[in-house]
Amino acid sequence: MGRPPKKKPQPVPKTPLEAFLLEYLNWMQVKNYSPYTTRNRRIHLQFFLTWCGDRGLAEPSEITRPVLERYQRFLFYYRKKNGQPLSFRTQHACLVPLRVWFRWMARQNYILHNPAADLELPRIGYRLPTVLTEAEVEQVLQQPDVSDPLGLRDRALLETLYSTGMRRMELINLKLYDVDSERGAVTIRQGKGRKDRTVPIGERAVAWVEKYLREARPRLVVEPDPGTLFLTAEGEPFSLDHMTWTVRDHVAAAKLGKMGACHLLRHTMATLMLEGGADIRFIQEMLGHSKLSSTQMYTQVSVRMLKQIHTATHPAARLHPHQPQAANGQPPPAPQPKPGPSERTATDLFTTLQAEAEEEPEDEKE
What was the pLDDT predicted at 126? Predict the structure, then answer.
């Protein structure tokens, strides 16, 4: 047996604020927060500490509500490398971790009061997420050069994203044994909220994954095999940014006039299934949403029923699209959506999707 890898030493904090940040991140790990949540909060809080350091602020007692309001104005006027301002959703996402962190310090009696308790966050308006039409998503799927191992891998991962609507991190964490080709299902382990779920995957996506496993992955893998389904050119699992860049490049290559990456395919899957007549609770189960709003509760649905709905409503669920025939030789009637989900419920779904996209930004503050 080889030696266990050495842990990287933690950086020595230069200020009391940095020391409390490290302690807070360690507390999150002890409380079993997901690595992504911990990483996301670290990025936002470190951005704030950099701003504090430039202004000579080092002690928690120096952070008052007026100081936080100055930081809020800084975010409003901040410009990324491309000259664009931060969206109000991004500004909101930067400020929420501050409120949580200062509340934690107050509960730990590190500070006498929480200066962020009454901080007014920017209002977030509702906007429809960008989605692709069925023809547009097919154009994106045609972009990878499948004669090349990396192109074949990209086609397989694009098909998987489109068919299942899984999150970027969930795709990255897929293992070889998570895809059940016979059942047409994928097990997503420790998804958002550290919850497992099983979702359908279409015949076409399964066919591309199997082709990738036969022809491309053996040429990418480096021993010892990590068992991860999708590998980079170096034989390693994808990073979050690498996965985003890979998907975004193919969306841009399609020249649709629309930009996006993994969330774009997730939104598109939900939209097309909804338009195809799927009940909103089945889409909710596919996406891994625990609830659509604080007042609406939905029952669990079986994987078999979810598979039937997926096959009936997802445009790319079948390997060879065809119109099934009824016993009398005539095409069966188109599936009708069940009564119940209102337009408001659909709005809740897409509001949840959009908020999720902002929580898991595919662009850092550049």
Answer: 64
pLDDT band at 171 (very low <50, low <70, confident <90, very high): very high
Q: 153, 168, 217, 266: which is the annotated catalytic residue?
A: 266
To the question of domain 134-268 being in CATH 1.10.443.10, the answer is yes
Q: Distance between CA atoms of 195 and 193, rounded to whole angstroms?
A: 5
Reference 201, options 283, 288, 315, 311; nearest CA is 311
Instruction: Express the helix, strand and coil content of the chain in percent, nearest 5 each.
Output: 50, 5, 45
Q: How many CA atoms lie within 13 A of 25 on its CB side?
A: 20
Rg (CA), the chain: 23
Listed in sequence order, the residues at least 6 apart from 39 whose beta carbon sits closer than 8 Å to its beta carbon are none
Q: How far apart are CA 221 and CA 233, in angstroms?
A: 8
- Per the annotation, the verdict on 192 as an active-site residue is yes
Tens digit of each residue's pLDDT (9 = 90 or more) over 124-135:
766 667 889 999
Which pLDDT score is estimated for 124? 78
Rama region for 27: left / alpha / beta (φ>0; ψ in -120 to 50; rest): alpha
Q: What is the 3-state secondary structure (H, E, C) of 196-231?
A: CEEEECCHHHHHHHHHHHHHCHHHHCCCCCCCECCE
Taking residues 176-205, report their average pLDDT.
88
Phi-psi region of 227 (alpha: psi -120 to 50; beta: other; left: phi over 0): left
Q: What is the pLDDT of residues 290-307, one digit of tens each?
A: 654 422 322 334 556 667
* Annotated active-site residue in 33, 78, 110, 298: 298
Domain boundaries, the chain: 16-107, 134-268
Does domain 16-107 fall under CATH 1.10.150.130? My reply is yes
Instruction: Kindly report the average pLDDT of the chain as a whole number.
Output: 83
Among residues 44, 197, 263, 310, the one annotated as catalytic is 263
